[in-house]
Amino acid sequence: MIKFRIKKIILKYLFFLILFQFLFIYPTYSKELVVSFIDINQGDSVLIQLPNNQNILIDGGDKEYSKYLEKFLKDRKIKQIDIMIITHPHIDHYGGLLNIAKKFEIKHVLDSGAKTNAITYLELLKILNSKKVKFSIARRGDKFSFENNLSLEILSPKEPLLKNTRSDINNSSIVAKLRYNNVSFLFTGDIENEIEEQLLRDNINISSDILKIAHHGSRHSSSEEFLKKVNPSIAIISCGLNNSYGHPHKQLLNRLNRLKIQYYRTDLNGDIIITSDGYKYYVSFSKNDTKYYQEEQSKILNINTASLEELISLPGIGKKTAKNIINNRPYYHINDLLKVKGINKNKLEILSKLVTVE
Fold this sequence. Notes:
Helices cover 32% and strands 21% of the residues. The chain is an alpha/beta fold. It folds into three domains: 1-28; 33-297, Ribonuclease Z/Hydroxyacylglutathione hydrolase-like (Metallo-beta-lactamase, Chain A, 4-Layer Sandwich); 301-356, DNA polymerase, domain 1, CATH 1.10.150. The strands form four sheets. An eight-stranded mixed beta sheet has the order 8-7-5-3-2-1-16-17, with no helix packed on it. A seven-stranded mixed beta sheet has the order 9-10-11-12-13-14-15. Helix 8 links the parallel strand 14 (234-237) and strand 15.
């Protein structure tokens, strides 16, 4: 009887010892991947929280929003950035990283290698160098593998960097594909049509479930061919509310609608957070205007191809004015509608939110 009790006590002791080691000595990880497209105004910043508690930060927006980015990270108990990706040296992508580099531990930085003499960028490099951060130039084929069948692969740029494009700096952007079991993300920086064409020509596997739209929704990116090859279920556009660039451009929104790609925007939806177990993913936002804006965006008409009935459905456009619009085609700019009898500046302001000339 005494031996039995002793054996029982020993078994209990071993059970609690194993439990203690499991809970407090050996790390326990969530199996969820969390990707946050941060509402950083007219800039880009994406935080990737891996299931093993490592963190990847892609860009950091402009300097004036660095405090918001810092708070966003601290609210999520993040103290260390394992990989910081600077997609390209434009301040709306790297400006906020100066503050982050000063206040957080950075393990490894991936840079595009594009040359620039921008003082702020050189200041960032100086901070990283003073903290002895590992610094690498990212090139196509680089791959980082993590636990739980998760990987990050660099798809662009490749050597040599393109020159004499519309924007060589934008086209130097790091393009990376994140894969977690069956779910994949494509991050595109500010690449433009030249790099999109290169990726298509080189037959790179860009197919992804979630696409970060390039260059804040610029008209110079996200061609229809590129979007078809990526074939995303959803797209994310990072841009500032009522920004002076007109991002996202109506041409892009029209393409997304035509291809039936659901999209979300940081200017309208705030922080866009995607959580995935590697097989399914869930989307949440800090703002809840999605349904309204999706309905509004779906009403965009191509003024050069719209039918008489579609034109009549526009506010303030009767049958006579609709016929005048058709008779004056083609239009190359939205302001060309002012030459149509029955359309004044006030009416044009309303129409500019509902039509495109693509």
